[in-house]
Automatic annotation (TrEMBL):
<dbReference type="Pfam" id="PF08142">
    <property type="entry name" value="AARP2CN"/>
</dbReference>
<dbReference type="GO" id="GO:0030688">
    <property type="term" value="C:preribosome, small subunit precursor"/>
</dbReference>
<feature type="domain" description="AARP2CN">
    <location>
        <begin position="176"/>
        <end position="257"/>
    </location>
</feature>
<dbReference type="GO" id="GO:0034511">
    <property type="term" value="F:U3 snoRNA binding"/>
</dbReference>
<dbReference type="GO" id="GO:0000462">
    <property type="term" value="P:maturation of SSU-rRNA from tricistronic rRNA transcript (SSU-rRNA, 5.8S rRNA, LSU-rRNA)"/>
</dbReference>
<dbReference type="GO" id="GO:0003924">
    <property type="term" value="F:GTPase activity"/>
</dbReference>
<dbReference type="Pfam" id="PF22298">
    <property type="entry name" value="Tsr1_G-like"/>
</dbReference>
<feature type="region of interest" description="Disordered">
    <location>
        <begin position="251"/>
        <end position="332"/>
    </location>
</feature>
<dbReference type="InterPro" id="IPR039761">
    <property type="entry name" value="Bms1/Tsr1"/>
</dbReference>
<dbReference type="GO" id="GO:0005634">
    <property type="term" value="C:nucleus"/>
</dbReference>
<feature type="compositionally biased region" description="Acidic residues">
    <location>
        <begin position="321"/>
        <end position="332"/>
    </location>
</feature>
<dbReference type="GO" id="GO:0005525">
    <property type="term" value="F:GTP binding"/>
</dbReference>
<dbReference type="GO" id="GO:0000479">
    <property type="term" value="P:endonucleolytic cleavage of tricistronic rRNA transcript (SSU-rRNA, 5.8S rRNA, LSU-rRNA)"/>
</dbReference>
<protein>
    <recommendedName>
        <fullName>AARP2CN domain-containing protein</fullName>
    </recommendedName>
</protein>
<feature type="compositionally biased region" description="Basic and acidic residues">
    <location>
        <begin position="289"/>
        <end position="300"/>
    </location>
</feature>
<dbReference type="InterPro" id="IPR012948">
    <property type="entry name" value="AARP2CN"/>
</dbReference>
Amino acid sequence: PAAPAPGPALLRAAWRREGAGCAGAGGDAVAAPQVLAEKRNLGSKDGPPHLVAVVPLHGAAAPCDAALRLLQSQDAATVRGEPGGTGFALLCPRLKQRWRFVVAQAGDLHAVLDLAKVADSLLFLLDPAEGWDTLAVPGGTDLPPKKRIDAKKRLAKAIEKRFPEAKLFPLNTAQEASLLLRQLGAQRQRPLAFRARRAHLLAYAAHFEPSPESHLVGTLKVSGFVRGQTLSVNSLVHIVGHGDFQMSQVEAPPDPLALNPRVDKGHKRSQDMDVQDDAQNGADEMEEDVKVLMKADASKQESLQSEVIPDPMEGEQTWPTDEELQEAEGER
């Protein structure tokens, strides 16, 4: 038997479903290439390193221990120390990606927020014994192997209540560290409107050159990877805690975290994992093979004056001149 024809309500519902499907497919088709390009550019040789902010949730959490576990990963080829010892860079030619890990100060909320503004990913470190406030797991290593899985599940549920959208990764073996690196490189970045409106960077190295007249005034040379919008040399830069400043020029120094750095003949680089201290080399690399990209134009530079200086005579009635008095008498 023939099925009855659908009524108006069924037709409207079917049309809405088809329209929603078409709209969703069209939106995904437009957004997919852009999202894929951003994911491929982040951490690649042509883009800035993947900036990971390491936030200890407890004062007893040791970021160095987690860093050593990351170094044991088979994908980690080269490790470079940060100037000042605030973090390290991880270069993985096998994965064709590079990361920069910066450790935030435990307990300093303002420092964590400033670092989170420019970070691509946040990596929270949970101490296995102290937790974050009062959580503790005494005797966790004494549990039988069969009960450890159940204990991890219960602990994961307790952590998910405080961090509902975060993913939990243990850092006990090199394989687990490798899984964490792959997750950092493959996860989708959430777009942040306030960060996409302007250019920003986290300094990799800084050097201050005082002027001959005074040691309190001079030129600050800051090296880092520009993210977000294009940086204009005629615009102002804001340094957190110090204020706004004008730029004199923008230079392009050699990439200190290149995946495939140039090696001179006769000096083959060791293939083993090596930890390099760049505290002294960070400022020196800024002076080698520097290319000037832009110089400031005094006629186009933004002014440092942020407030309007009031004119005391503005709005006041001035005394008429002799010509204005004669003209007024003639009109009478």
